[in-house]
């Protein structure tokens, strides 16, 4: 495990005078505070002793049932016995890593990919194999070269960091190739419900359920501080993940599970999510407009159709890690793209979050980034 230079630099961004487009923090204004306050009082009134007691490692039964039902709506037929409630989907990554990786075994990843997954797998000492691809995602024909990997880690919906969503054809081709090769898939899907144009196609797990482990999260649809996520595993793998969960922390906090089940049972998502989508759609549009206005020619990005991030490629030769102090000095922060690459890093990339800052701060922040890039190009 290595400390992150980027975290050190980003500590500076906690200053109120810095507009942070760096962290992937959901907007606190989008948290369903009132619903959680009321549900919390109900849990403590109706089942206080159960909620405060040690509980089952698998998770709270009614919440597992709810997850299985929700996934059926996405085309994924799941038995509640395959659902393991975790302390965020980040714990799902940790548990899968512990169960499936041995030191020196290969793990296939997209490039770029979620930095937190690389960090979660790293203690098991895998050898990462970056799967090449294009703007549409990893190339299905590239999977032959990683057929011996323990699994392929994929983010089909509004990827962190690139924002891209795999289309129907790419999903079918990737799931087909993985099944043909017997290459297990680890599908991470914390952003699927945050679509702003149209819902994404069904998950890969719906196409090859026997070979896919699916990770979901309540962090982006309710609130990350609840630390609630889930793993859906093929039945033969489930007992090993459960053992790893027991060893890690016995179980996910029972109070939080009951609290969340309480609001889900009341149908909160159906009333809450449209407002979250509206808010984030406006912020995405604000960032798209600001990028078009302020970034000089030669910079490239795609407008994401969901999730939280823009991925920007600056002109060749610029290094976004080296430019970060100048950006912070001008009052804006982003995450340099380098650490999101398991293979050869593209140093001219950066990630911007559009969900935390207001449209007005996004505009000022992007103007400052534009100024830094122009200055660097003039050097
Ligand atoms: N996977 C991805 C792709 C993420 O972006 C995140 C959060 N940033 C996580 C997993 C972890 O989320 P949580 O533990 O809050 O569910």
TrEMBL record:
InterPro entries: Aminotransferase_I/II_large, Class-I_PLP-dep_aminotransf, PyrdxlP-dep_Trfase, PyrdxlP-dep_Trfase_major, PyrdxlP-dep_Trfase_small. Keywords: Aminotransferase, Pyridoxal phosphate, Pyruvate, Transferase. Its cofactor is pyridoxal 5'-phosphate. Its EC number is 2.6.1.66. Gene3D superfamilies: Aspartate Aminotransferase, domain 1, Type I PLP-dependent aspartate aminotransferase-like (Major domain). GO terms for molecular function: pyridoxal phosphate binding; valine-pyruvate transaminase activity. Residues 17-369 form the Aminotransferase class I/classII large domain. Pfam families: Aminotran_1_2 (PF00155). It is an enzyme of class 2 (transferase). One of its GO terms (biological process) is alpha-amino acid metabolic process. Homodimer. PANTHER family: AMINOTRANSFERASE (PTHR42790), KYNURENINE_ALPHA-AMINOADIPATE AMINOTRANSFERASE, MITOCHONDRIAL (PTHR42790:SF19). Belongs to the class-I pyridoxal-phosphate-dependent aminotransferase family. This is Valine--pyruvate aminotransferase.
């Amino acid at each position: 495990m290595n400390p992150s230079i980027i975290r050190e630099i980003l500590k500076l961004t906690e200053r109120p005078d810095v507009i942070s487009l760096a962290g992937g923090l959901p907007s606190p204004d989008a948290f369903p505070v009132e619903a959680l306050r009321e549900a919390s009082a109900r849990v403590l009134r109706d089942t206080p002793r159960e909620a405060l007691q040690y509980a089952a490692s698998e998770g709270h039964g009614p919440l597992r049932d709810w997850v299985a039902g929700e996934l059926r709506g996405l085309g994924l037929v799941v038995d509640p016995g395959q659902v393991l409630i975790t302390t965020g989907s980040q714990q799902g990554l940790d548990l899968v890593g512990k169960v499936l990786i041995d030191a020196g075994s290969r793990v296939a990843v997209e490039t770029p990919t979620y930095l937190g997954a690389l960090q979660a797998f790293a203690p098991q000492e895998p050898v990462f194999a970056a799967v090449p691809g294009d703007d549409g995602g990893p190339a299905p024909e590239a999977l032959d070269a990683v057929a011996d990997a323990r699994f392929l880690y994929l983010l089909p919906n509004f990827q962190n960091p690139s924002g891209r969503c795999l289309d129907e054809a790419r999903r079918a081709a990737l799931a087909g190739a993985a099944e043909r090769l017997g290459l297990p898939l680890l599908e991470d899907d914390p952003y699927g419900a945050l679509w702003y144009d149209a819902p994404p196609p069904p998950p890969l797990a719906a196409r090859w359920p026997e070979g896919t482990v699916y990770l979901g999260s309540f962090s982006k649809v309710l609130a990350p501080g609840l630390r609630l996520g889930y793993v859906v595993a093929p039945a033969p793998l489930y007992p090993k993940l459960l053992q790893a969960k027991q060893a890690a922390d016995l179980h996910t906090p029972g109070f939080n599970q009951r609290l969340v089940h309480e609001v889900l049972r009341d149908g909160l998502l159906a009333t809450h999510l449209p407002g979250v989508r509206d808010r984030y759609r406006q912020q995405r549009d604000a960032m798209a407009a600001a990028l078009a206005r302020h970034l000089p020619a030669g910079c490239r990005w795609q407008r994401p159709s969901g999730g939280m991030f823009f991925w920007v490629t600056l002109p060749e030769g610029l290094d976004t890690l080296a430019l970060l102090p100048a950006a912070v000095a001008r009052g804006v922060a982003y995450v340099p793209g380098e650490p999101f690459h398991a293979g050869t890093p593209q140093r001219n990339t950066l990630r911007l979050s559009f969900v935390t800052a207001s449209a007005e701060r996004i505009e000022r922040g992007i103007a400052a980034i534009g100024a830094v890039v122009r200055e660097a190009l003039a050097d």
